Amino acid sequence: MIFSVSTDILLEFLDVALHSILYYRKLYPEEIFTVKKVYGIPVHVSVHPEVNSYIENILGCTKKLVQENKSNLEAVSIVCIDKNKVPVEKYTFGLEHLRDNILDKDPYFIKTEDALRTLCLKLSLIESYLEPLPPESTFTINITTNRAAFLSLSEQIASLDFPLIIENHPAEVKNGFLLPIKDLCTDFLALKCYAVKSKAGPSGS
User: Fold this and answer.
1) β 75-81/87-98 pair status
2) Distance from the Cα of residue 8 to its chain's centroid
3) What is the pLDDT of residues 85-114, one digit of tens each?
4) Cα(159)–Cα(172) distance, rounded to whole angstroms?
5) What is the pTM of this model?
6) CB–CB of 93/78 below 8 Å?
7) Which residues of 115-127 are buried (b: 16+ CB within 10 A; e: fewer)?
């Protein structure tokens, strides 16, 4: 069904985006990444089992949310944290719409793929205008949803070794400034993509 294809397109992009940010913000050594082609362009993806398992679990939860009700998913964010556990950068991919009944407008998803390719190229430029992260920085990935969807998802994956933690007030970058990346809007998929960067210089250097 077309909705399933649209969901897979969203998840594939989020997978590429999360790996790209880990690579371009140098959260891991270059040696744990390999290059593959997605949307006709080279992208960097991790080959580290633990990193990949974490991202796969996050995307698995995201898929369950969207399949249950596409309005369940508000955003997926990756937060970069310094060695003192202080958030210093946050990249957010907010879901505006995900549609499943307009195959006639873009039957082969060509326009959507073009838009995703452009967005990936924008992500590849982030290291050129951002200073390096503080030494020993780490990251976490957040899914923003509503409480009802969270409770439903918790019941579904209760048997899995991947605990969900609800945060009514998730950590945010304090005194940060907004960096628009590029919004994406196609008939099938619309995303609002931006970063928040701490105004303070790198700490711990």
Assistant:
1) antiparallel
2) 14
3) 999 999 999 999 888 766 667 777 888 899
4) 30
5) 0.89
6) no
7) bbbebbeebeebe
